[in-house]
Structure formats: structure tokens, C-alpha cells
Amino acid sequence: MSGGKKYTIPVGPLHPAVHEPITIKIDVEGEHIVGVDVFCSQVHRGIEWLGMNRNNPIQSIYLSERVCGICNICHPLCMVQAVEKAAEIMPTERAEYIRVIMAELERIHSHLLWAGVAGHEIGFDTVFHYTWALREAVMDLIEYLTGNRVTKAIMMFGGVRRDIDETGVRKIKEGMQYYLERFHKIEEIFLHDPTIKMRTRDVGILTREDALKLCAVGPTVRASGIPKDVRQDFPYAAYADIGVDAITPDMYNGEVHGDVFDRIIVRLLEVKQSIEIINAALDNMPSGPILAEPNLVKLQMLLKKADGEGVGRVEAPRGEDIHYVRLRKGEEPFFSWKIRAPTYNNLLPWIPMLMGEQIADVPIIAASTDPCMSCLNRVTVVDVNSSKEYVLTKEKLHELSIRKTRRLMRNAH
Predict the structure, then answer these.
(1) CATH code at 171?
(2) pLDDT per residue as tens digits for the range 42-82
(3) Is 368 part of any domain?
(4) For 100-116, what is each residue's pLDDT tens digit?
(5) Cis ω on the peptide bond leading into residue 342 (within 30° of 0)?
(6) What is the secondary structure of 243-305 as a DSSP string?
(7) Which residues lie closer than 8 Å to 291 by C-beta, 6 or more apart?
(8) pLDDT tens sequence across 177-226
(9) If DSSP codes are grouped into helix, strand and coil, which group holds residue 391?
């Protein structure tokens, strides 16, 4: 509809189809999108700053879990790997296998949660409820293994906090069999239902070239036919022993469209792959201790004497997660901690994915990358007079906070 009247429509920051605060401003001519701009940073919780100001660095592990309510194995795993490299701590072999098992349970949970949300975004709430009912089994399994359904609190520098006994092995295998028996039903719903295919095939296309140029990660980049996966390319924990091949949609049907439907294919195949990885890890898991240094007081002193830097890389359910840590000797050893979550990379691809599509497709296209705003957001200020963007320093942020508090107190009186 070129040449028609152009309107700008804001989607967010509060919108029933976008469950976290982000604003997408779309320019439309009729029903077609002709311009896209994305504004984030409506939420910032200062987790990195809090972690850098802890006297006890072990406490920062549990802060890293709270970067994301879903990805709270991959973030602490990524962070402890960075610290282990900086402090030259070698995790035990058994712990490396337990880390893989927990990470893949999280992937199953995350992908099933996403599949339900995807059904909801296209108005198919029956699919939403059915998929989330299936998700309960892995949630119950995670609770049995860690004591928690959401924040698992299992990672530790040099290993893990909880072992998996014979009963745990049996329960995990029963859980994996449960999903194998129901995988055909999930596949039938998502890949063979004409309604879902009609709403997602050739919608939100991300070409191979755009995926590479915009540095997309995770299922988003793999759905464009690019076999990029940290578990395959730079294996960590026990993934090198098990072996992982990146999933692309042509493995299912010999085609790559790079659309929303292909992102569904990749995630469903990854659920099945995670089941295979978990079973392989259980069958080959060595015996031995689960912590390199079980004395936590000694471990804490070791970290306070460390002086170095490390980078952790983990294939989170949404894509490559990176944590950088710089340790220095002293009471607050976390001199620097920086997180680059996968949503950073998968946000810019929204622009080519949305261009030329219809307004009604905005929710499912945005959701198809499985965005997480709590992982993404950092505070950024734009000076409207000069249009110069800058990042607030700790000192400046503290000064502005004091000013605001005093202003509020004056207004209260």
C-alpha cells in the first residue's frame, strides 16, 4: 500500500501481548508495517553493581540466578565458569555432568514455556494450557533435584551444591520417557495444525544474511539455517564428551524459511535433543566428589586472594550467554562483572522480521525470539537537547537518587 497515509502506532511499554516492558513503535500504511523502532530500558535492577559490592562473592551466584526467572541455570553456570577461569579453580568431573543435566532440564522447561506463550500470542489458548500442563512434569523434576521450582540454587564455584543419587537418576529417566511418549502429540499440534502453520509460515522472516549481519543467536539464528551453538562450537562442562549438533529446520523437512514456523521447529527438535543429552549424561556420569573445595570458608578466602579475569560462555535456551568477570585481591573481589544476555543480540533482528508484515503479526514475531527484558535492560539516558547518549556512572546515579528523594520529601510536605 505504498503512497497511503502513514501512522505511527506504539506497542508497549505495557501491552497485553508483550508481557514485559518494551516499546515497539511501528509505522503503518493500512495494515502493513513500513517502519520499526525499538525502545528498551524501562526496567533496570542493577544486579551487576550489587554483585560487585558483595563481601562474600558466593552470594553473587544467587544474584546471577535472578537475572532471569526462566534462565536461572544458564546465568549462574556462565558466571561460575568465568570466576573459575579467573581464580584457576577446576570443577570436578561429576559436577560437569550434573551441570549439563540441569542445563538441559532448563532448556526443556524454557522451550515448553515458550511454546505455550506462542500459542497464546496467536489466540490459541487451548495449546497454551496443554503445553503448560506438560511443563509441570519438568518443573516437578527440577523441584525434586534442587528443592526449588524456579530459582534452583545448585551452582557453586568448583562444582554443584547437590548430587544426583540413584533415586534421582531413576526419576529423571522416568521424566524423559514421559516426554518421549508425548513428543508426537506436541509435534502434531505445532507442526501439523493448519491454523498454527497459517499464522507462522512465511511470517517474520529473518534471512541468513540478516541473521549473520545482526549477530542473532540461539534458536533465532539456527532457524535461519546457521548451525551456531556454543555447546557444539565451544563445548563446556561435559558437552565435549557427549557431543552436540546444532539443530536447524532443514533437519526436519529439508527446507529453511527463517520464519516463525522454523523457530517452532528448532525449539521442538531441541526438546527431543535435550532428552537424548540428559540420558547420555546419566549413562556416562562418573563417580566422585561434586565440589573441588567443599569448605566454603576456604573457598571464599581463595576467591579473595584471586587476581585475574575470565569469560564464561553458555548456550542458554534463548542463545549464547556471556559473563565477563575481573577479580582483584581484597574484601570485594568482584572488580568487574558484565553480562551479555542473548536478548541483546536478538532484538535488532526484530526490525527486518517486522518490516512488510501486518499489525496482527507483531506479537508472535516479537515472541518468536523468546525475548527477556529483565535479561536485556540497562539504564541509558538521552539528552533531548543534544541527542547525545550516555551511560550513568555509579556516582552520578547515586547523586540523582539523592536529589529525587529530597524532591519527593519536599513534595510530601
Answers:
(1) 1.10.645.10
(2) 777 778 888 888 888 898 999 999 888 888 899 999 999 99
(3) no
(4) 999 999 999 999 999 99
(5) no
(6) ------THHHHS----SHHHHHHHHHHHHHHHHHHHHHHHHH---S-SBS---HHHHHHHHHT
(7) 92, 95, 156, 158, 159, 160, 161
(8) 999 999 999 999 999 999 999 999 999 999 999 999 999 999 999 999 99
(9) coil
Residue 386 amino acid letter: S
User: How many domains does one find in the chain?
Assistant: 1
364 with 331: CB under 8 angstroms? no
pTM: 0.88
Cell of 346: 536478538
What sections of 203-248 are H helices per DSSP? 208-213, 218-222, 230-233, 239-242
Buried b (16+ CB within 10 A) or exposed e, 110-148: bbbbbbbbbbbbbebeebbebbbebbebbbebbeebbee
Domain of 167 in residue numbering reads as: 57-342
Asked if residues 342 and 321 have their Cβ atoms less than 8 Å apart, the reply is: yes
- Output the nine-digit C-alpha cell for 233: 562450537
Eight-state DSSP code of residue 235:
-
Residue 321, in any domain of the structure:
yes
| Alpha-carbon span 309 to 179, nearest angstrom | 40
**Average pLDDT for 348-362:** 91
H/E segment holding residue 325: strand 319-327
- The grid coordinates of residue 403 equal 536529589
Q: Which single residue is written with the C-alpha cell 558466593?
A: 58
Give the Cβ contact number of residue 329 at 10 Å.
11
Residue 132 lies in a domain: yes
Residue 84 grid coordinates: 573459575
Task: Tell me the backbone φ, ψ of residue 411, rounded to 5 degrees.
Answer: -65, -30
How far is 391 from 320, CA to CA, in rounded Å?
Answer: 24
Q: How far is CA 375 from CA 51, 75, 264, in A?
A: 15, 10, 22
Tell me, yes or no, whether 297 lies in a domain.
yes
Is the CB of residue 333 less than 8 Å from the CB of residue 55?
no
In the block, which residue shows the cell 534442587? 146
